[in-house]
Design a protein that fits this description.
The complex is a heterodimer of chains A (476) and B (278).
Chain A: H1 2-14, E1 18-20, E2 30-33, E3 50-53, E4 61-64, E5 78-83, E6 91-96, E7 102-109, E8 116-122, E9 128-133, E10 143-148, E11 151-161, E12 164-173, E13 182-187, E14 195-198, E15 212-216, E16 222-233, E17 236-246, E18 269-278, E19 280-285, E20 288-290, E21 294-298, E22 306-312, E23 321-327, E24 339-342, E25 344-351, E26 357-365, E27 372-380, E28 386-396, E29 413-417, E30 420-428, E31 441-442, E32 446-447, E33 452-454, E34 460-461, E35 465-473
Parallel strand pairs in A: 1-28, 2-31
Antiparallel strand pairs in A: 2-35, 3-4, 4-5, 5-6, 7-8, 8-9, 9-10, 11-12, 12-13, 13-14, 15-16, 16-17, 17-18, 19-20, 21-22, 22-23, 23-24, 25-26, 26-27, 27-28, 29-30, 30-35, 32-33, 33-34
Chain B: H1 4-7, H2 26-31, E1 35-44, E2 58-68, E3 80-84, E4 96-106, E5 110-119, H3 126-151, E6 154-165, E7 185-197, E8 204-210, E9 228-235, E10 243-246, E11 249-255, E12 262-263, H4 268-276
Parallel strand pairs in B: 3-5, 8-11
Antiparallel strand pairs in B: 1-2, 1-4, 2-3, 4-5, 6-7, 6-9, 7-8, 9-11, 9-12, 10-11
The chains are: A mainly beta (476), B alpha+beta (278).
Chain lengths: 476, 278
């Protein structure tokens, strides 16, 4: 087993990835600003976007960001975006039971009719709310399924089994005993009831990292990635990067015990150990905070294949470095770094039906006033020995000045359906074609020749952070 | 006629089907609304936005004049707005009214939910209605401020002498959690220059506030040394540690977490007046 790991690692280290330089503009790519025309005066920091797709109807999508109810902070509801034309246009609907905005939100879809499940931190007081809408196009407020306090970063994934939806909500549960806070709330009955399952089996510094990320395959294999925070020195956390697996949808009494580490025979494969996580809840990387960046994706049709990305500080002068690794044997062994991306964050992964992996990330290039946030989608069919690189956006990293944190998000979103990668990211919304090499469509009112945003009356609007939907054809 | 008491008088609504809001004052309508406009009903059982199905409760209204709206919302005279009415059949084509609404669906156009409507002599005199709504909004804001004053344990005009990390000595016996939503409690030491309620000039007060830049705390006022203001202070029931240390003494800690809790220094006379003449 060890020899296998080393061999893979050496191969990855010695291979120089061959990067196909992208043409100026590829065909079939869409980038769409989600802010609708009727909110053209909007200048909020719409960070931390997320996306949900319906397998049953490719036209239907839901999206979210830290977008407030336009009615203000005392409004009883917060909004989500919905699209019924495959992402070409979006509307904002105030259907979340949270005062004006949420403090965290992710969501995923169920079966037919178009059910939507959401996990939010509700405003005020920030309890977890596990929500459901039987028809996400309904203007009705989403229904509360479960709630409790003292949690962080709910991250929702779903799968359908027969007529029932299974819902997996990764979250950091501060009420978990012994500082083993990495948790997945599992519902096997479409959100009617949830059971909390603890993932961590080792000692921690008192808690796990905020990011707990599930991924579900069609054969009901469920992987979950989390940070095993072991110790800290000041704001630097020493962490393991851990993956657990359940082979039967987490329906048993003690799920997520199917993948053990050979070093201690405990559940949870240690993909990387003793990495340094710089916890900085202040503008640190292009005005963004850093400290808990984690993504996992499984090949839905071949659950042996799973990809993992996380960020840490390597210590070579980097601020934050994203690592991407792969397992082809159900998490038992892992490659070395397939991609190592300096001063990057917000990796999101997805694996298409033909096995192509997509990697979305956002990276700061340049320095000081010339620095830029560059948003890229990379695709590879050979474990990143070669890959296609698409720049979706390259925007100033110093403007606009942050209104709060996260600046662009602690995460973004990437999914796949059919022959498309579909995703969402947040970025500076200046209507400048040079910032969007693949083109961009605004719904809100803009004037491209002058690079100005305009409100409903034609008056200039300040540049801000907007969520952008995109679709990119999967490599054939 | 333009006094507060006049404003708070119930607006007599005369249309059939508007009984549900007949008892609501204009101020009550304004309080619940974020988009207010004068408009003329053009269609009933119809919608002006493709994202919403028509129903017996949806009507299309042409905007004659926008009286209030959030800055983000693009809504101008001549636009057609879809209104989900409180009750089906309460409006007829051709009727002009002032619509009190909340934003509902924002796409190529705007759909709103009716809080109530106020029919007028057609045509509605826009200037008079604008003034009436403005007065009602003033009254609503005034009432909200009075409620905050009422609920405050202490109201002072003063200056922030110092900001220091909060020591939450009586916090529950649990480990400090590392989370991006950590409020990062700080303590502002305020030198009271003028005691308006529950305090005296010369007193020093400890006010806790979240210094966190996290989105969860984006609306909470932050304090800086040297800052002057009029402060509505509430006993600290948020941090779990109701007492603070000041000059070696255990003293009550306060919070000011709402935007109305921190006002300009020059508002002190107005606040004093509101306290003495409730």
């Amino acid at each position: 087993m060890r020899a296998g790991v080393i061999a893979v690692a050496l191969f990855a280290a010695c291979e120089q990835p061959v990067v196909k330089q992208p043409p100026a503009k590829l065909t079939g790519i869409r980038v769409v600003d989600l802010i609708p025309a009727s909110l053209s005066g909007e200048s909020w920091q719409d960070a931390e976007p997320f996306l949900a797709l319906y397998a049953s109807n490719p036209k239907l999508m839901a999206a979210s960001a830290f977008t407030p109810n336009p009615g203000g902070s005392t409004s009883a509801t917060a909004p989500i975006f919905v699209s019924d034309d495959g992402g070409d246009s979006w509307t904002l609907r105030n259907t979340l039971p949270s005062q004006g905005m949420t403090a965290d939100i992710t969501h995923a879809v169920g079966g037919n009719p178009p059910v939507l499940y959401a996990g939010i931190m509700k405003v005020p007081d920030f309890p977890l709310n596990e929500l459901k809408a039987n028809d996400f196009f309904s203007p009705a407020t989403m229904t509360l399924q479960a709630s409790r306090a003292d949690i962080d970063q709910p991250f929702v994934r779903t799968t359908g089994v027969g007529n029932a939806d299974r819902v997996y909500v990764g979250l950091n549960d501060f009420d978990a005993p012994d500082g083993r806070t990495a948790t997945v709330d599992v519902s096997l009955n479409g959100g009617t009831s949830y059971t909390s399952h603890r993932l961590e089996t080792r000692n921690t510094l008192g808690q796990n990292g905020p990011s707990i990320r599930p991924a579900v395959a069609q054969d009901h294999t469920v992987y979950v990635a989390y940070f095993g925070w072991r110790s800290n020195a000041g704001s630097d956390v020493t962490s393991d990067v851990v993956v657990v697996r359940d082979d039967s949808g987490a329906i048993g009494a003690t799920p997520f015990r199917d993948l053990v580490d050979p070093s201690d025979h405990l559940p949870g494969r240690l993909v990387a150990t003793h990495v340094t996580i710089p916890w900085s809840n202040a503008p640190t990387l292009g005005q963004e905070r850093i400290g808990s960046t984690l993504a996992i994706a499984v090949d839905a049709l071949h659950s042996d294949n799973v990809y993992l990305a996380w960020a840490d500080r390597v210590g070579t002068g980097d601020i934050y470095t994203v690592h991407v690794r792969r397992s082809t044997d159900r998490g038992a062994t892992w490659s070395g770094d397939l991609r190592t991306l300096t001063n990057a964050t917000d990796p999101s992964l997805a694996v298409s039906t033909n096995g192509t992996v997509g990697l979305l990330y956002q990276q700061v290039t340049g320095s000081a006033s010339t620095s830029r946030w560059v948003t890229r989608l990379e695709q590879s069919r050979d474990g990143f020995a070669t890959h296609q690189d698409v720049v979706l956006a390259t925007v100033p990293a110093t403007t606009p000045t942050f209104q709060f944190l996260p600046y662009i998000g602690d995460y973004n979103g990437l999914l796949t359906r059919g022959n498309q990668f579909l995703g969402i990211f947040s970025a500076n919304n200046t209507p400048d074609s040079a910032n969007f090499p693949q083109g961009v469509v605004y719904q809100r009112r803009v004037d491209f020749p002058t690079h100005r945003l305009l409100d409903g009356s034609g008056a200039p609007v300040a540049v801000s952070i907007d969520p952008f939907f995109f679709s990119v054809p999967v490599l054939p | 006629m333009h006094t507060r008491s006049a404003i708070l008088l119930a607006v007599a609504l005369s249309l059939p089907g508007s009984e549900g809001v007949a008892q609501m004052s204009r101020a009550a309508l304004v309080k619940q609304s974020d988009i207010i406009f004068i408009g003329t009903v053009t269609q009933i059982g119809a919608v002006a936005v493709p994202e919403l199905p028509a129903s017996a409760r949806t009507v299309v209204v042409r905007v004659d004049q926008v009286l209030e709206k959030p800055a983000a919302v693009a809504l101008t005279t001549g636009d057609s707005v879809t209104v989900e009415t409180v009750r089906a059949g309460s409006l007829k084509p051709g009727i002009q009214a002032t619509f009190y609404t909340t934003g509902w669906i924002f796409g190529r156009g705007v759909a709103v939910r009716e809080v109530g409507h106020e029919p007028g002599q057609s045509p509605v005199v826009a200037e008079a209605q604008q003034q009436a709504v403005s007065r009602a909004r003033f009254a609503v804001n005034d009432a909200a401020l009075r409620a905050h004053i009422q609920s405050a344990a202490m109201v002072v005009a003063g200056r922030v002498d110092q900001v220091r990390p909060a020591e939450l000595a009586a916090a529950p016996p649990r480990p400090k959690r590392i989370t991006e939503h950590d409020p990062n409690w700080q303590e502002a030491i305020i030198q009271v220059q003028e005691g308006l309620k529950g305090a005296q000039a010369g007193q020093r007060v400890v006010v806790r506030f979240p210094a966190s830049l996290d989105v969860a705390w984006v609306g909470a006022p932050k304090f800086a040394a040297g800052e002057e203001g009029t402060f509505l202070l509430h006993k600290d029931s948020t941090t779990g540690s109701p007492l603070a240390m000041l000059a070696g003494q255990s003293v009550p800690a306060y919070t000011a977490l709402h935007k109305l809790d921190v006002l300009p220094r020059q508002d002190a006379p107005r606040i004093r007046s509101m306290i003495t003449k409730p």
